[in-house]
């Protein structure tokens, strides 16, 4: 059995303080930026997950050394022209769309061909969204049907571009920003608002970047060819991992949790805004600024009755990785919830919109779908006692954690396969559940 777990009991009331794993987006960006900085950068509390390990292995193949001393990763960069590939190489982004896409932005000057590959899930995902803008800079990119493997051969004579990012994808925006760092002149980006960690890090690192907000868009200008000085960074907790404990607590009986030191950047807290509109009382306390980011403790308690939501699409990007778990709350709400324009959800580690619908139907929740819009008919009495098998979900870590949450709050007899999937983002997930008293075999 491919690393299967069994859950047969709902979780009993709990009242605990926890820490979740470190922010994946920030960990990957710190590794990549350190790899093109000048000198030794020191990254502490870096997420030690498969996705971040993929980024470390790739920079290593590109000629950048790193070592781990106690809890600190030290990465020795040689500046914007510091990658050293003497021959054609293959780099492997594993399961990570963020690593696979952003690294291409850093290879636009490569003197030798670099072939990018990934696992089964990543090999099904579209890469034209980044190869097209990178070609405009002057890099040479080849792929079949816009899928992996992608081959990139750089160009010494890059030119800045004007780029419109219309999907609300931080991966596309960040890939273009990283290419702009190595390009003379000013690259101009109009990007639908999405997580802004790359921009905040570059501001903190004193790279000339201008950001102006214009309604649902950001207008970003990056001036290229400025070297980054090495830096120190302590990565805070990941709200996308905290999300599973927020919903577990809301839907459990008589429970409370405090999730310490989580990154609550405005572009990431869509889940809190959405769930609070549904009558949750999630509170952020002990707020602090850290190198451009915001960190806080998240206080959550069980709620007896949830209101349905007509979810504003402008919140989609800031909750993009959290919809699966938000849908479980909608399934328990007192009425019909509407979620719209969820096309991007099918572009993730698995086609998550399709899988969420299949999953919710399996547990008896009524759903209507029209194109990328869904209606979830909530049932405040939702409680399960059947047998449920979760398998064949392309090892999508967030589908696995959604299934565990459903099992622990709704009941039933569950077998959930591919436990190893959590290693991509949240290796300690099951251990933390057990400290709350969850019975998992
Ligand atoms: C990420 C951006 C999002 C998100 C992914 C991480 C990032 O993807 O789903 O898990 O770190 O930039 P898109 O940019 O494709 O929306």
Explain what the structure shows.
- The longest helix has 14 residues.
- β8 and β9 form a beta hairpin.
- The protein has two domains: 219 residues, UDP-n-acetylglucosamine1-carboxyvinyl-transferase, Chain (Alpha-beta prism), CATH 3.65.10; 199 residues, Alpha-beta prism (UDP-n-acetylglucosamine1-carboxyvinyl-transferase, Chain), CATH 3.65.10.10.
- The model has no long low-confidence stretch (mean pLDDT 97).
- By secondary structure, the chain is an alpha/beta fold.
- The site of shikimate-3-phosphate has 12 residues, from α5.
Quick structural gist:
The chain has helices at residues 24-35, 50-61, 97-106, 128-137, 170-181, 197-204, 239-251, 270-277, 323-332, 352-362, 397-410, 429-435; strands spanning 5-7, 15-18, 37-44, 65-69, 72-78, 89-92, 114-117, 140-144, 147-153, 162-165, 186-192, 209-214, 217-223, 228-229, 232-234, 256-263, 283-290, 293-301, 336-339, 366-370, 373-377, 387-390, 413-416.
Keywords:
binds shikimate-3-phosphate; 5-stranded mixed β-sheet; UDP-n-acetylglucosamine1-carboxyvinyl-transferase, Chain; 28% strand; 4-stranded mixed β-sheet; 29% helix; 23 strands; globular; alpha/beta
- In CATH terms, what is the fold-level topology of the largest domain? UDP-n-acetylglucosamine1-carboxyvinyl-transferase, Chain
The portion of residues forming beta strands comes to 25-35%
- Specify the CATH class of the largest domain: Alpha Beta
Helix/strand/pairing class, anyone? alpha/beta
The total domain count is 2
Task: Using the 3D structure, state the CATH architecture of the largest domain.
Answer: Alpha-beta prism
Distance between the termini: 13 Å
Number of strands: 23
- Report the bound ligands by name, code or SMILES: shikimate-3-phosphate
User: Which percent bin holds the helix content?
Assistant: 25-40%
CATH superfamily of the largest domain, please? Enolpyruvate transferase domain
User: What are the segments in which pLDDT stays under 50 over at least 5 consecutive residues?
Assistant: none
- The DSSP helix count reads 12
Query: Main β-sheet: number of strands, strand sense, barrel status?
Result: 5 strands, mixed
Mean pLDDT: 97
What is the 3D shape? globular
Radius of gyration equals 22 Å
């Amino acid at each position: 059995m491919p690393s299967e777990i069994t859950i047969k009991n709902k979780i009993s009331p709990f009242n605990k303080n926890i820490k979740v794993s470190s922010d994946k987006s920030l960990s990957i960006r710190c590794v990549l930026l350190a790899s093109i900085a000048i000198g030794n950068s020191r990254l502490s509390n870096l997420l030690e997950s498969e996705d971040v390990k993929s980024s470390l292995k790739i920079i290593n193949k590109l000629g950048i050394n790193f070592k781990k001393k106690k809890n600190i990763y030290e990465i020795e960069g040689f500046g914007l022209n510091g990658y050293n590939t003497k021959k054609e190489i293959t780099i492997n982004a594993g399961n990570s769309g963020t690593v696979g896409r952003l690294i291409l932005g850093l290879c636009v000057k490569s003197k030798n061909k670099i072939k990018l590959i990934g696992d089964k899930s990543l090999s099904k995902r579209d890469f034209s969204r980044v190869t097209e803008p990178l070609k405009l800079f002057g890099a040479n990119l080849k792929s079949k049907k816009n899928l992996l493997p992608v081959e990139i051969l750089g160009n010494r004579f890059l030119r800045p571009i004007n780029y419109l990012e219309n999907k609300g994808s931080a991966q596309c925006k960040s890939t273009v920003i990283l290419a702009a760092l190595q390009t003379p002149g000013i690259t101009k980006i109009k990007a639908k608002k999405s997580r802004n960690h790359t921009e905040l890090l570059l501001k903190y690192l004193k790279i000339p970047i201008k950001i102006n907000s214009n309604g649902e868009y950001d207008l970003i200008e990056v001036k290229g060819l400025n070297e980054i000085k090495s830096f120190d960074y302590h990565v805070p907790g990941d709200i996308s991992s905290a999300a599973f404990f927020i919903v577990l607590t809301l839907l459990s009986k008589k429970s409370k949790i405090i999730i310490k030191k989580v990154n609550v950047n405005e572009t990431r807290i869509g889940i809190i805004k959405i769930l609070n509109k549904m009558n949750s009382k999630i509170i952020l306390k002990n707020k602090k600024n850290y190198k451009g980011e915001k960190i806080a403790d998240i206080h959550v308690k069980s709620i007896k009755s949830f209101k349905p939501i007509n979810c504003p699409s402008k919140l989609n990007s800031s909750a993009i990785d959290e919809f699966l778990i938000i849908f479980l709350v909608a399934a328990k709400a007192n009425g019909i919830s509407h979620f719209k324009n969820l096309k991007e959800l099918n572009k993730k580690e698995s086609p998550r919109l399709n899988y969420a619908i299949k999953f919710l139907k399996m547990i008896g929740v009524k759903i209507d779908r029209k194109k990328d819009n869904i209606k979830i008919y909530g049932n405040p009495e939702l409680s399960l006692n059947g047998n449920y098998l979760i398998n064949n979900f392309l090892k999508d870590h967030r589908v696995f954690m959604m299934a565990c949450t459903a099992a622990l709050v709704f009941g039933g007899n569950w077998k959930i396969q591919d436990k190893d999937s959590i290693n991509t983002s949240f290796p300690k997930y099951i251990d933390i559940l057990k400290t709350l008293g969850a019975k998992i075999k």
